[in-house]
Specification:
The structure is a single chain. The chain is α/β, with parallel strands linked by helices. About 45% of the residues lie in helices and about 10% in strands. The chain folds into three domains: about 100 residues, Response regulator (Rossmann fold, 3-Layer(aba) Sandwich); about 170 residues, Rossmann fold (3-Layer(aba) Sandwich); about 130 residues, Helicase, Ruva Protein, domain 3. The chain is globular and about 80 Å long. The chain starts with 5 loop residues before the first strand and ends in a 12-residue tail after the last helix. About 10% of the residues have low confidence. The structure holds adenosine-5'-triphosphate and magnesium ion (MG). The site of magnesium ion has 3 residues, from helix 8. The site of adenosine-5'-triphosphate has 19 residues, from helix 5, helix 8, helix 14 and helix 16.
């Protein structure tokens, strides 16, 4: 029903292409090209979200091809696959061609799939929903949607991707993160699952002096120690069972750039010792290698645990904690920033419309109200799923009606009534804001979006009401009129 994102695999070696295709076909539409010319022809003819390119192409090198792609088609997220022989040259050029991730052979199917999924997600994030922009441009200041530096096209970078309202606690968090980005210090991002930790880590990298170099992600929670160490620090062939080839470590791939160590709180004591040594000494020793290699990497790590509590409980090394958390940043859960929900929901709807080739025209006011009232235990990720589901169930050219919401969210309506938005506001100001938003949303819904009538009933001027509608991120319904 829904078209999966398209990945273009550029690889001239039939067996290698088939292996990549078999894994990627689980989640993606896979198209192939044997050389640069064929790949360009495909890019001219098809909408591609991710390009996965072999470093060794007939008559060309993958990096040179991706550098050219970057100029001609800046949209697709670029990834490269290199064998150990090419790894060094590849690593040196990664930043230059704006390559999102370098994957070394032999690759691990699950990890490959995860990396390409992340790349497809990045593609979505980078696309500003045209609807959100035009709606907002037409009606004055609200947006925290900053166009990327020097980019006229529909791409966002850095902090501009993190949607929030000026009154949101996230505004203060981003203020801190911007300061942290300026200095080469390690940042620890804490926050519940789906609050945007990885998005913030990328923003810090993009805003730092290392922006032109690689940003490399490792999920430390998903792998046994040996594999994690060989991925991060590299290994020599035969260093452990399963190490069939030399492998370049992600610390080396990230040299000059940033490494994002996700789920750092899940790591074992023995891994923590090794990581501490790397951070103290600024050098890595690939498993089975004789000599260490110097690396210059900025570390941003993240966890959804209370890492200090883990330290107190003896499960996380205190010395490592202080190495990682020179600059701690906490992302609040969505329930503590309900004012952000309408704008984030609009951004996501734009992304989903693009990904699904749909034209859903926003949210009905009551839908937004219910979205803003829900506690969102899965945070933005859960909101994303909810919107995807609603779009799949809805019609084009109409706002999403409230009855398409999941039962758990609809139930909030019954529980709602006059209760203060329980999970939401903390300060009196937040609560008053939330109440105002709900009163306006309710009146807009009841009076069919007629601004004059709503303004009259609430004792506001039309201009005053319009500015409040904007401030609260309340879209006027399709039938709204000024008459
Ligand atoms: N403020 C925001 N504005 C727009 N999109 C957001 C925002 N926060 C998060 N997202 C989106 O929500 C999804 C989850 O974000 P992200 O992966 O960064 O969260 P996380 O905290 O790393 O989650 P997890 O702990 O589950 O790994 C992503 O698609 C991200 O782009
Ligand atoms: Mg994450």
């Amino acid at each position: 029903m829904v078209a999966p994102p398209t990945v273009l695999v550029v690889d001239d070696e039939g067996r290698s292409f088939a292996a990549l295709r078999d894994v990627l076909a689980r989640d993606f539409a896979v198209i192939g090209a044997r050389d640069a010319a064929e790949a360009e022809a495909r890019l001219r003819g098809e909408a591609v979200q991710v390009i996965l390119c072999d470093q060794n192409l007939p008559g060309a090198c993958g990096i040179a091809f991706l550098r050219r792609v970057r100029t001609l088609w800046p949209g697709p997220v670029r990834m490269i696959i290199a064998g150990t022989d090419d790894a060094e040259g590849t690593v040196a050029c990664v930043g230059e061609a704006g390559i999102h991730e370098s994957i070394s052979r032999p690759w691990h199917p699950e990890r490959l799939l995860r990396s390409v999924r992340a790349a497809a997600e990045l593609f979505q994030i980078q696309s500003i929903p045209a609807t959100a922009l035009t709606a907002r441009r037409a009606s004055g200041p609200l947006p925290c949607l900053l166009p990327a530096r020097g980019q006229a096209g529909p791409l966002l970078s850095g902090f501009g991707r993190i949607v929030h309202e000026p009154s949101s606690p996230v505004a203060a968090v981003l203020g801190l993160a911007r300061r942290a980005a300026e200095y080469d210090i390690s940042v620890l991002i804490t926050g519940a699952s789906g609050t945007g930790k990885e998005l913030l880590a990328r923003a810090i990298h993009d805003a730092s002096a290392r922006a032109g170099r690689a940003f490399v992600v490792e999920n430390c929670g998903a792998l046994p120690d040996e594999l994690l160490e060989s991925e991060l620090f590299g290994c020599k062939k035969g260093a452990f069972t399963g190490a069939h080839q030399d492998r370049i470590g992600l610390f080396e791939v990230a040299d000059g750039g940033t490494i994002f160590l996700d789920e750092i709180g899940e790591t074992s004591p023995s891994f923590q010792v090794k990581l501490l040594r790397v951070l103290q000494e600024g050098e890595i020793r690939p498993l089975g290698a004789q000599r260490p290699r110097r690396v210059n990497v900025r570390v941003v790590s993240a966890t959804n645990r209370d890492l200090m509590a883990e330290v107190e409980a003896g499960r996380f090394r205190r010395d490592l904690y202080y190495r990682l958390a020179a600059f701690p940043i906490h992302l609040p859960p969505l329930r503590d920033r309900p004012m952000d929900i309408p704008a984030i929901a609009e951004r996501i709807l734009g992304e989903v419309n693009r990904a699904f080739h749909r034209r859903v025209a926003g949210f009905a006011p009551q839908t937004l109200e219910l979205l803003a009232r829900h506690a969102w235990p899965g945070n933005v990720r859960e909101l994303h799923n909810e919107i995807q589901r609603m779009v799949a169930l809805s019609e084009d050219d109409a706002p999403l009606p409230a009855h398409l919401l999941s039962p758990a969210i609809l139930a909030d309506r019954c529980a709602g009534g006059d209760r203060p938005c329980a999970p939401a506001a903390r300060t009196l100001k937040d609560r008053v804001e939330e109440l105002e938003r709900r009163v306006i949303a309710e009146a807009m819904e009841r009076l069919g979006g007629n601004v004059s009538h709503v303004a009259g009933e609430l004792g506001l001027s039309r201009v005053g009401l319009r500015s409040k509608i904007e401030r609260h991120g309340l879209r006027r319904g399709a039938g709204a009129t000024d008459a």
